[in-house]
## 1
Amino acid sequence: MLSSAGSCPAASPREVVMGPFLDPFLENEFLVRALLAGVLVSISCAIVGTFVVLRGLAFIGDALAHGVLPGIAGALLLGLPGMVGATVGALAMIAGVSLITRRSRLSSDTAIGLLFVAMLALGVVMVSSSSSFAGDLVGILFGQILGTSVESLAVQAAATVVVGGVAFVCARPFLLLSFDPEQADVAGFPSRRYHAIMLLLVALTVIVSFQTVGTLLVFGMLLAPAGAAALLAHRVGAMMAIGAVIGAISSYVGLLISYHFDVAAGATMVLVASAIFFAVLAGTNIRERLTADGREPDAPATGPL
Amino acid sequence: MSAPRPVGEAPAIAARDLSVGYRGVPLVAGIYLVVPSHSSLALVGTNGSGKSTLLRTLVGLLPAVAGSLVVLGARPGGAPRRLAYGAQFHASGFVLPLRAIEVVRMARYPERGLLGRLRSEDHDLVEWAMETMGVRDLARSPLRSLSGGQQQRVYLAQALARQADLVVLDEPTAGLDAGGRELYLQAFAAELARGASIVTATHDIAEAAEYDQVLLLARRVVALGPGADVLTADRLLETFGILVRDRHEEHRGRFVVAERARGAPQVVDVGRDEQP
């Protein structure tokens, strides 16, 4: 940046201040790749996570995060790319969940909960069958963002473009679906079709990010930034944008903490995102309590969020 | 406001020996019903009498259990651009970060599809509908900051902005204050004048009397016809009396109704309208 007279008189104090925040990225190419991967994950997670939060799909997101593990393990056993296995696992999970949901009239969360723990257990059993996989399991569950390759960055970018493109085309049915699925049906946008497309986007996001933040932690990146944004935004588009910014900040701060204190990068990113969520939650609660006094008791309907 | 859309002369709704219910189990059987275009029908009955079930079947959200049903010249739900449906007040809007005007804009989505830009006539309709329901000042307010009655007005504005040939509303005046009720009744009259047909479920007997036809429901068709003929003390007692007993002796009441549903179709008076 140009040092305009007065505002920035000397270069050295600025370097002292900014050094610990910028130098790791200037000196280590792997950190730049990790940051890019984190930003790309943040964008697709903000878009998809917005609908996960608005439609209450957190449970299914979690199920997908567990369901891809045996798929990845199976692919590694067969010598296939992990992404192929993750796709099969995710599709199997969606099929299983929708079958249970359609068959049972009552709340299906017991069956679904059991299904996804069973999938996780199956994945662990498969991985433990071969001792050479021991390290892979941690990598699959928690990601290896510091080892992000140029190829996986390209895959991540392509997935982000697909997620963004589909969300743009389906913006109206997705909004109707979040507002009221029956309104979507009556308006001629079949809720079942667009619900399926939404689930596929969640699956795509989970599958692609298993290399960066890992299958378990991607769930945090789906929920935390979008959840914080839901508390702040008054429009769906704004919610996505705020979510993406929170995700990107979390990636940057997480990587920085991980670099300076030598702790797990992906997990730190998710921790930072969660911390932001709870800070926003606390902030909005305090603000509501402060403004509640001057308000008629029954005038504004306050939602469950 | 743009010019009213011409409405065909075929009946908006024609039902013959229709049974409605959930999962193949009839709740109300043997419904014969014709709603001509440019006319109104009120469904009156207690909670659980089948009003919402019938409305949901009319708009295609529920498959008919038996019988034939033609809505707007197609299968139910087959003409989404000509249909508006306002369900009972729902809470899902609370979580959504949405402004009131965006809810009303949704009314124009069927017309414009996935990617078609809303035109100036769409924006005019949205503005007019919000003005009609007295919520134009709230257009930029977050939906979740509005009171229940204000939200209900926004939903009714959405139904108006659809400019549909058939408007189906489930308890549209529930939760409205006196002013909102009056605005709704005016808008309702204007929709009829435009040439639309209106079907609503209501608990308000006085309001129902304003409709061209009234259908009394008590898990069966008690009566169908012009309000003056149908809204008699005997029939209202029949409509609401059965379900009072049902409420006290739930299982016995259900059994009685289920037996009736299996029996011969109710012969109902279709009033001045002819069968299709």
Note: Chain B has ten helices and nine strands.
## 2
Amino acid sequence: MMEIKICVGTTCHLLGSSSLVEAINELPEEIKTKITLKYSTCFDKCQQEMVPPVVNIDGEFFDDLNPAKMKQLIIEKAGEDH
Amino acid sequence: MTSAVVYDKNLNKQNESVCGDNVQIKKLTDSKIIILSDGLGSGIKASILSILTTEIIGTLFENKVPVEEIVDTITKTLPVCKHRGIAYSTFTIIQIFSNGVVKIVNYDNPDPVIIKGRMVYEPKYTEQISNNKRIRTAIFNLQEDDFIFAMSDGLVHAGIGNLLDFGWGTDNLINCLMKLKAKSDDLKHIVDDLIEITYNYYEEKPGDDSTLIGIKITEKPRMFVFTGPPLEKKMDRHYVEEFLNQNGTRVICGGTTSNIVSRITGNELEIQFRMTRGNDLPPYGLMKGVDLVTEGVLTLQKLNKLLDSCEKNMFEYEVEDENIDGAHKMFVMLRNSDEIDFTVGRKVNAFYHNPALPFDMSIRSSLIRDITGNLKRLGKIVTIQYC
């Protein structure tokens, strides 16, 4: 299973984290069933270190995401697992 | 600590632009009092009589004057009606003490309906004659989520001479109240529905001013809001422990603040897995020992807009039961509280100054100031501590 934590803190929310949830919903069913989705409050990464919205996938942080980038990232990650 | 959430609604007698009934609510140090008065006749004259009555009672109560003296004062002070030669207004006083004791003093209004759990409770009244007036008094205990409904006689007489020969009557009204309460425990729904039914029995032409006061007993009249990280990190534990030891409804407003509480207590935050519609606000969450965890600045901003829209009381804004966001949830909690204590952290989130954001986010303290102003205007007692 792939664990995805999406930050829903103020800045990530303002910079589009909710659209990332929709991106996950649009993924093919076989990938969706392998995902555990969680929401998180601030990862404390956005203060100069990373650009919101920030997402954590299996312990690794990714930033500056949009729906297209997010989908691509998950598909790549799911491919690595196979 | 016991107190009550109070919501009242009235109908004016047809063709009258003011109501001859009046309601006053007062918060004293050891109790909350709710006073209803029905002035003789209708229109302005009745309105003045009833306002005078509630004002006099409220002020004398604050000064701990015994009820007999209050009744005496009222009968001697009210202006006398030119036509009937009497000074007259009825009143009901309901006093809810912080230890759960409730005292009702009733003069000539219908006896309030009391609902304990799911049953109608009929307290024992003692009667005394004061200045030829029969005053009924009852003292009893109530618990959280018990209800009292106080009313003027216009409600009981609805339909008299028209739809119903002798009016609606107390028994039918109680049955109706019980049915409404079985459907929903929401104070506003019950009161609004009963007033609407009264209006219909009057065939939309009320023959008398009609007022219904709904009172719901609460054990959590205080609310504590912790928003924003403390300026000094070493003080985090102190403020978190202070917050969690408070007796009342506890709300955390802010992601970083909730992270701090979570880190110190070891209790994890569970975010409700449901984005609010339109993505207006981020989702809210729950944590052990805390009643609600919301996002910070955006939620406070929306909350302040909701408060702005209320002119006299917080029931003016209709909150739908389902699918409500963090701001609405907080609004309802505030509505149910008498006193609100804010603990406001002064640490500024550096990213909030980022030009990528649609507006300046470093406005927590000014938002709290606006919210506080609104809450005070709407009858709440508010304190703020900055940390």
Note: The first strand of chain B starts at residue 3 and ends at 11.
## 3
Amino acid sequence: MTVALSGSEIASQIEKQFPGGVVESGADSLLVKGESLLEIAAYLKTTAGLDFDYLTAITAVDYYDCFEVVYQLTSIKHNHSLVVKTRCYNRDNPTLPSVVGLWRGADFQEREIYDLMGISFEGHPNLKRIVLWDGFQGHPLRKNFL
Amino acid sequence: MEVEEVYSSSELDRKEGKAINELIARSQEPIPDPDQWLDEELKRNILLTSVDAMLDWARRSSLWPVFCFPACCAFEFMTTAASRFDISRFGMEIVRASPRQADLMITAGTLTWKMAPQVKRIYDQMAEPKWVIAMGACAISGGIFRSSYSVVPGYNRIIPVDVYVPGCPPRPEALLYGIRMLHQKIAKMSIAAKGK
């Protein structure tokens, strides 16, 4: 069975490489800064021993004061997994770096988050609505929709 | 008809979005159910009655459904089509992938506005005479998704519906009953007074 790695264990390793990159870490997840998300993701993907070569899913959560984007990573090589989170406090124009360059599977999921939650992913090759149609007003999964 | 050429997918998206918004704007009211011929029996031309009877018998005895199964009611339709309930008893066992060879649309499932133009196009491509059975709560009124931002509140917003079969989903018996009701409706049609 896939072993879920503890966020706090990985956090110390990442903190060494990218000082200030980790905001907080717990037994189940790792919260990183939005600005350092891309380099931390690249590090998680390429470092021997971690090798998170597979992106299981991306989701987004609306916590009113911030949006949280959750990346569920898996290493097929080592059969372990990790949950990485990042937050976005700008509600009017939330922006995060896109991870399509690292995991191609992020393409449609980032588009879905853009469509339903209104978070822009910088560097995405084709960021447009995917579930709803062009010209739809608003982002329905935001808590203040309706 | 002028054929517009579209090159980029973003241009296609803009056109689609515009078409959907226009469709929503002109689909705010339900289309009246086509039933005006049901009380016209007395006004009919007597000379045509046996022709009518013959034609209506032929039409209702081999209703070929078209593929329009956007959601889960499709499974009940499959059950209805399979051997236990067996709609081939009514000459309906051939579900056509081409709307040009079909005369009945059984709308089995929730319809979103994004999908609505395609369903409307399939309906428009069907040759007259054609009928529609709205199957299930979503097809009748949008069902539990009625107040959603993306769901069509009933197929009668975009196409005229002849028979409504309630249920979530309706059991095959209910669908068969709906088909029998449609048969009775077709039996009253006259070629002199066009139904729709």
Note: The two ends of chain B are 25 Å apart (CA to CA).
## 4
Amino acid sequence: MSNELLTEVTYFVLAIFVGIEVISKVPTILHTPLMSGTNAIHGIILVGAIVIAAGADSPLTIALGLVAVILATTNVVGGFVVTDRMLEMFKGRAAAPKSTATR
Amino acid sequence: MNLAIALAYLMAAVLFILGLKQLSSPKGARNGNFTAAAGMVIALGATLPLLHFTTAGLVIIGVGVAVGALIGAFGARMVKMTAIPQMVALFNGVGGGAAALVAVSELLTFGTRPPFAEAFPSVFSIVIGSISFAGSMVAFAKLQELMTGTPITYPGQQLVNGLLAALIIGFVVAVLVIASIPFSFVALMVLALILGVAFVLPIGGADMPVVISLLNAFTGLAVAASGFTLNNFALIVAGTLVGASGSLLTKLMSDAMGRSLGNVLFGAFGKVRTGTAAAGGKEARSVRAGSAEDLATLLAYSRRVIIVPGYGLAVAQAQHAVRELADLLENPSRGWKDAGAHERAAG
């Protein structure tokens, strides 16, 4: 096993544990926004799409690169915006008790 | 790897982890989304400067980012609130598709005999990414009511899906071991797309959130696999984080519905013959269990709280706990008033 592969596997295994640990206390009401947030994070594939698209020089690689970049960008931008819209709703409701207090 | 890129990727990874942490607590959820977005910007910004662009590459990246950003922003902003779940499915699906295409592109550069350490993650990414893409599109269609939301089943469905999966595994082995057939992974991709559709068809519309969460974890893993192919740490770490947290989240979501994941995914299988006979009878009804944390979060978001005690509450001797809760809620400092819904039930 090459050194680089070994390092990659190490990152992979550690990231599994961090990923599980970091969200283990999520309340039910935040399940959907959290799913949407993680959905935006795997939009990191845009980095990969740009790397392969950058060197495109044949019709096939150009087509593949273009489609990959479009799909990945849609994932990133749409993912973060839609998550923000979801959480916007929560903010409105969380602020409400303050306004009723002054009545 | 260049030092600046390595440090930027490390910073992005830290921001993703902090973002996830914030996203899973009511207080910081919205900031968590921004934190993760900042991580994304850093990872992208660090990647660009050191690439060698061909002219065509520069053009397709420019056009691709513009088109994708437009679709993403427009889609996410313009849809009605009620249509948000299917948008999440859609954005998840395109991510899986992108992961599969990145793996295909990279595999092409190795010719007919790619080294195993590159071929294995590529093939994994192609299969899982394609399943996620096709499955998410079906989930989208079901939620958008482009097709019926009820489970679509037929006799022998499980057998057909099992055969499809076996066929895919056979192709994977062929690509990895024999590998001399050009474009054999195109066939692999087609089979995985079919399996993705077949896998989601028998699942009902109400269970879609769990399925989307599972496919979300799939996409995360596909992205991580693409990261192994490209030797890119940002992809490996971020993809794995999503794969792991998404898997746990899928389990938590089906738990919250009082069902097992297996029941959600395969519950409709084999029901073709029994049909409506099972309805209403001894069929297990769903129980919603909650933790103290769930309750606290719900209450913190609420404007009015009405407690309706039932017989179970009396059996469980929980009157005092409810009284304490009500006292806390009626505490003037929280700004709530007794809404006047008092105990009338509970014989």
Note: The helical segments of chain A are 3-22, 31-41, 45-54, 59-101.
